[in-house]
Design a protein that fits this description.
The chain is an alpha/beta fold. It contains twelve helices and nine strands. Helix 8 packs antiparallel against helix 9. It is globular, with a radius of gyration of 19 Å. Bound molecules: iron/sulfur cluster (SF4). Iron/sulfur cluster binds next to loops.
Length: about 350
């Protein structure tokens, strides 16, 4: 399938999601591993010693039996700690024929030659758009403290630069910095953006993707950590970035601006600005096979090992419909995260402009 048809397929699904619930999810948020070499103050994933994570054969079986995905997020932990990350991408590419976009984060702590080799192998598989989000939570003085790893700032800069240079050969790769605002870096976003732009002159504020530190027991395992930044600093940080950003009328640029404006609303009110599309447009699969509505709700739907790796066995069940009713009534924890918010915006297209 050509890139244009895949983009058209994603666009059509986005339009359909404005008309009502979808028959199958188009976005999969899949934590491929919980292994992580970082020591982040905002997240407890690195403290886990995960056992019995899904094997490549199990993932292949899942990809074969669930082929509706148009957007695949392979997250972690650190996804490049999975030796078979290329095979994982390949299994989804081979089965979800309309897959338009693969997004992955990285903490930049794996060997960069290895990451570049794997990225090249993924890019050689297919014309699917690949976006790497390089995690960076502060300027040089701050980043290493928040991530708990000496030299992490320089590694993040190098990782981003390598991906940028890959664009000379592969037009379908892009990179962002992923910055999470928490009480540890509140008020420091502008300085971070300026510092990075001095070091990498081609970087613009539009290369920064922002999240707000949020609590999630089924994903970050950070229920016992006080991470939330104060409201004034969150608003100042995001407001400053919105002012620095260049106007970008591409679909991704408009989505990002809309996401940021609504993140400010969420920071002010604690209320999600749009209704959740969890268990409709998307789902969250962890590395042990557990399925949840989202990364933010610890309500296990099932384990794919118990349903022969086939989500369709439960997708239309009374139990899942009951969960959807609860989501509709707003009983899901109130969230506005990158993993889920985009589906809410896309499913409410007028919200792109306010
Ligand atoms: S935020 Fe990312 S890099 Fe940091 S501990 Fe959690 S999974 Fe690892």
């Amino acid at each position: 399938m050509s890139e244009i048809s895949k983009f058209g397929g994603l666009g059509l699904t986005a339009l359909m999601s404005n008309l009502g619930p979808l028959s199958r999810p188009y976005k999969l948020n899949f934590a491929v591993t919980y292994w992580c070499q970082s020591r982040c103050l905002t997240c407890n994933i690195w403290q886990m010693k995960p056992k019995d994570e899904l094997s490549i054969d199990e993932i292949a079986e899942f990809a074969r039996k669930n082929n509706s995905f148009k957007w695949l997020e392979l997250t972690g932990g650190e996804p490049f700690l999975r030796q078979d990350i290329v095979r994982i991408a390949e299994e989804f590419y081979n089965n979800s024929k309309g897959l338009y976009m693969l997004t992955l984060p990285t903490n930049s702590l794996c060997d960069h030659d290895m990451v570049e080799r794997k990225l090249r192998s993924i890019l050689d598989l297919d014309r699917t758009r690949v976006i790497l989000t390089v995690s960076l939570d502060g300027h040089k003085e701050l980043e290493d403290k928040i991530r708990g790893v000496k030299g992490n700032y320089e590694k993040a800069i190098d990782m981003f630069d390598r991906v940028h240079r890959l664009r000379e050969e592969y037009k379908n790769i892009g990179a962002f910095f992923g910055y999470t605002i928490s009480r540890f870096n509140q008020g420091e976003l502008e300085r971070t953006v300026e510092e990075v732009m001095r070091q990498l002159p081609y970087v613009t504020p539009n290369h920064f993707h922002i999240n707000m530190g949020q609590i999630s027991s089924n994903y970050y395992g950070n229920g016992n950590v006080e991470i939330r930044a104060n409201e004034a600093d969150i608003l100042n940080d995001i407001g400053a970035l919105l002012k620095m950003r260049k106007q970008d009328y591409s679909p991704v640029g408009m989505l990002e601006s809309s996401f940021l404006r609504k993140l400010m609303v969420y920071a002010r009110t604690g209320e999600p600005p749009l209704k959740s599309r969890s268990l409709d447009a998307s789902l969250f699969l962890d590395s042990f096979g557990n399925v949840y509505p989202s990364i933010m709700w610890d309500r296990k739907v099932c384990n794919i090992r118990d349903i022969d790796y086939d989500i369709s066995k439960v997708w239309d069940s009374a139990e899942v419909n009951e969960l959807r009713r609860e989501i509709k009534e707003g009983r899901e924890p109130k969230h506005w995260t990158a993993c889920e918010a985009y589906q809410s915006i896309v499913g409410n297209l007028p919200s792109l402009i306010y």
